[in-house]
Amino acid sequence: MVGGGQLARMTHEAGIPLGIRFKLLSDTPQDSAAQVVSDVVVGDFRDLDTLRAFAQGCDVITFDHEHVPIEHLRALEADGIPVRPGPDALVHAQDKGVMRARLSAIGAPCPRHRVVADPADVERFATTEGDGFPVVLKTVRGGYDGKGVWVVHSAAEAAEPFRAGVPVLAEEKVDFVRELAANVVRSPHGQAVAYPVVESIQVDGVCDTVIAPAPDLPDDLSVRAQRLALTIAKELGVVGHLAVELFEVRDAAGNPQILVNELAMRPHNSGHWTQDGAITSQFANHVRAVLDLPLGDPRPRERWTVMTNVLGGDYPDMYAAYLHCMARDPGLKIHMYGKDVKPGRKVGHVTTYGEVLDEVRERARHAADYLRGTITE
After folding, report:
1. DSSP strand pairing (39-42 vs 23-26)
2. Terminal Cα distance for the chain, rounded
3. What residues does each domain of the chain span?
4. Are 174 and 190 in contact (CB under 8 A)?
5. Which residues contact 373 (CB under 8 A, 6 or more apart)?
6. What's phi and psi for 204, nearest 5 deg?
7. CATH classification of 178-372, choosing from 3.40.50.720, 3.30.470.20, 3.30.230.10, 3.40.190.10?
8. Closest C-alpha to 7, from 49, 65, 74
9. What CA–CA distance (Å, rounded) separates 296 from 281?
């Protein structure tokens, strides 16, 4: 696996019961996955020679991020190394301009958008193709967790995104009801499964809480979202896990609709709830898919599951808070990533589940806030 973050750590964990041996290409020995995987190569994934040397002896290559250069992945495939997802699919998660063009071509509902050349072009987009300002600007490559995204209210505010030296995508600012995510997994021979559509609650551009399934989501819209994600996975040739981040909106008649916001071709934060709340987790199904094994059951174990991210806060050692959280809620599941605790850094997550949504949400919120130090009782 290329990438040593927490996604690789949890994917490795899911492969242990199957006897899968992982080899990891990690930036540093301190990376989350590098702390638990036995076979670690420390190196730069942007260097082709490093990738080629790492790939020797691997049956298949997969990733916990989308940033490996596409031309390097094509070189690995030319060397006879299976890469899943392959470069033809992964480019749609790397480049937002390519993604929007392809999604539009297959009829997937998207916000109005266009790649723009400069602030004056942003103003032309706003006045002729959108509903005026504000407009959302995104660098087509390299953004994540709110980075590389700007909401601008005039052409004068639009200069900053162009300083990165990469193309910029302009999108209408969507007046959405809430954010959803449809997670699916697809294998090389075309078997696919869909998890329940979830609600994803963002705070300052970072995923804070995921509720599975999304409360009060009409059945027809849920099915539509799952079918859309499965169609995207098939049309783009995705192998492994695909997260389709969605906006729930209302049309002119007040009917609920969905628009595609982003794609991620790897296990995703919106699917972390499956680690404890689904019969087969996103991590286990991703492993099965990239190895072309039969996929597991994606159905939930309980009526409601809530995942809340734990951000670094006032506790330099939040492990001391385990005693309180575990004693207060024996059903709580805590997943920490082995990262140094820094304010605002995503260092873990908690999951809770049960029959009453308000109770399940309160349990997850209390644990995450206590581990962060926001509350002390």
Report:
1. parallel
2. 40
3. 6-83, 112-172, 178-372
4. no
5. 313, 314, 315, 318, 321
6. 55, 40
7. 3.30.470.20
8. 65
9. 8
Strand ranges, E, within 80-188: 113-116, 135-139, 149-152, 168-172, 178-186
Q: What is the CATH number of domain 6-83?
A: 3.40.50.20
Q: Which fold has domain 112-172?
A: Dna Ligase; domain 1 (3.30.1490)
Amino acid at 165: G
pTM above 0.90, yes or no: yes
- Spatial distance between the Cα atoms of 342 and 76, rounded to a whole number of angstroms: 36
Measured distance CA(184)–CA(194) in Å, rounded: 4
Strand pairing class (240-250; 206-212): unpaired
**Longest Cα–Cα distance in the chain:** 59
Residues 347 and 311: beta-carbon distance below 8 Å: yes
Helices and strands in the chain: count of H runs, count of E runs: 11, 15
User: Does residue 85 have a cis peptide bond before it, meaning omega lies within 30 degrees of 0?
Assistant: yes
The two tokens of residue 198 are 């979830």
Task: Name the β-bridge partners of 259.
Answer: 247
Q: What is the pLDDT along the chain (377 residues), one digit of tens a residue?
A: 999 999 999 999 999 999 999 999 999 999 999 999 999 999 999 999 999 999 999 999 999 999 999 999 999 999 999 999 999 999 999 999 999 999 999 999 999 999 999 999 999 999 998 789 999 999 998 766 567 899 999 999 999 999 878 899 999 999 999 999 999 999 999 999 999 999 999 998 889 999 999 999 999 999 999 999 999 999 999 999 999 999 999 999 999 999 999 999 999 999 999 999 999 999 999 999 999 999 999 999 999 999 999 998 766 667 789 999 999 999 999 999 999 888 888 999 999 999 999 999 999 999 999 998 888 88
DSSP 254-270: S-EEEEEEEEESS--GG
Using CA atoms, how far apart are residues 311 and 294, in angstroms rounded to an integer? Answer: 35
CA 95 to chain centre: 15
Question: CB neighbours of 78 closer than 8 A, spacing ≥ 6?
Answer: none
